[in-house]
Amino acid sequence: MMQFLSATRRSMLIAAAIAPLAAMANAFPARPVRFVVPNPPGGASDIIARLFSDKLAQTWGQPVLVENRPGAATVIGTDSVAKAPADGHTLLVMTLTHPLNAAFQKKMPYDSVKDFSAVTLVAKSPIVLVVSSSVPVKTVAELIQFAKANPGKLSYASAGPGTVQHMAAEMFKSLAGVNVLHVPYKGSSAAHPDLLAGQVSMMFDTIPAIQPHIRSGRVRALAVGGSARSSLMPELPTVAEAGLAGFDAGSWVGLLVRSGTAPDEVTKLNKDIVTLTKRPEVRTRFAELGLDPVGSTANEFDAFIASETRRWSTLIKTANISAE
How far apart are CA 123 and CA 41, in angstroms? Predict the structure, then answer.
């Protein structure tokens, strides 16, 4: 029957038959997608990855898998993404540790800038400065005054070398010009008993982690660490507002793909993930985790990573901070 049709009609029928196949060939994602979390299960980055995987699988019609690859301060999982195909089907769920590694580590198996392309800054996680109830201060200014009057007497807890708790306290020390001893622990929760008992004097920690102890009155919250007040504790000033100009520290979660990924694939990932961050149920879950949703453009996230890398590298160098 095809031979009796006009050339124009034949072309139209052929095009109509091919179009669905071409669309399937060009569809993105075209196969299962992986979120690589370079941390153990249970943390904010892992929870976000699992929340997103369930919802994006519905959007994309493809399985979205979460793969935890912890180890070597996130280097093992990050390296696996650096060596994955540049096709947008493998995403790195990264945090502040990524630029900190670039500043701390002299040798890494990847280039933290050149080997990755930004997708979006998903969310920020504000931190709060607390002191043990045994420390006789109620404001940031009083804390700095007390530390200067009692050099070497105060100590601060961290979740380990190179963590946001460690770096925030070192920034505080540098800007305030005070001497406070670092006492590292294996995770922030491990530090809480000594903080409550007054064995360590102060700590920067995420709000959800430390808030129960603030409410109990066993630690005293002085200020939040970011550039803006937190919706979780809006009554607290920022550290900068409280008198320590230039202080800005906090954690965050973002997504990267391997560099060389096609721009239209990055655009697709950004669009779908940013749309997801605006959904009410996602925002509710973020609030439960103490996260402020962001959903930036890829270019904005690129600029943010560059800024974070520069400022933490400067602090690490000038204050001679070690990740050991």
Answer: 18
How many other CB atoms are there within 10 angstroms of residue 230's CB atom? 21
- Residue carrying structure tokens 């196969």: 31
Residues in contact with 38: Cβ distance below 8 Å, sequence separation at least 6, in sequence order = 69, 70, 71, 74, 75, 76, 77, 78, 92, 93, 94, 97
* Alpha carbon distance, N-terminus to C-terminus of the chain: 78
- d(C-alpha 8, C-alpha 320), whole Å: 74
- Residue among 128, 151, 146, 36 nearest 90 (CA): 36
Sign of dihedral through CA atoms 267, 269, 273, 275?
positive
Cβ atoms of 110 and 320 within 8 Å: the answer is no
Backbone phi, psi, residue 223, to 5°: -170, 160
Query: Which whole number is the average pLDDT over 114-137?
Result: 95
User: Per the confidence metrics, is the pTM higher than 0.70?
Assistant: yes
